[in-house]
Design brief:
Helix content: over 70%
Structural class: mainly alpha
Shape: globular
CATH class of the largest domain: Mainly Alpha
Number of strands: 0
CATH topology of the largest domain: Arc Repressor Mutant, subunit A
Strand content: under 5%
Number of domains: 2
Oligomer: single chain
Number of helices: 6
CATH architecture of the largest domain: Orthogonal Bundle
Order of helices and strands: HHHHHH
């Protein structure tokens, strides 16, 4: 998976395309705002749709404590998403970017101090 390109305050071009589409913008306007052609807008939407279908087919429920969700709430609000969505995005990013050992090593370092 290619690295995410933060765009218009969103984590990726795909996130920006989906958000602008949800606001009712057309393909040409989305492309103009992001600086990509209409074919790329369509491709990003198609890719997101396929990924969403794959996730739905394999998705399992993960429960987060209320304390964790409360801590994530202000960060989620700034992104206009639910704390559960932010928690899922964090976990997916850690896995996709190969950061599991880094996160856990950091956690172990703090607990040893």
């Amino acid at each position: 998976m290619p690295p995410r390109k933060p765009t218009l305050g969103y984590a990726s071009r795909t996130d920006a395309v989906l958000a602008l589409r949800a606001q009712g913008l057309g393909t040409a306007e989305i492309g103009r705002r992001i600086g990509i052609d209409g074919g790329t807008v369509t491709a990003l939407e198609h890719s997101a749709s396929k990924r969403r279908t794959q996730i739905q087919e394999t998705q399992r429920t993960v429960l987060f404590s209320q304390d964790v969700l409360r801590a994530l709430a202000p960060h989620a609000a700034r992104r206009g998403i639910h704390p559960n969505s932010l928690a899922r995005r964090i976990v997916e990013t850690v896995v996709d970017d190969g950061l599991i050992d880094s996160v856990l090593d950091d956690l172990e370092d703090r607990s040893a101090a």
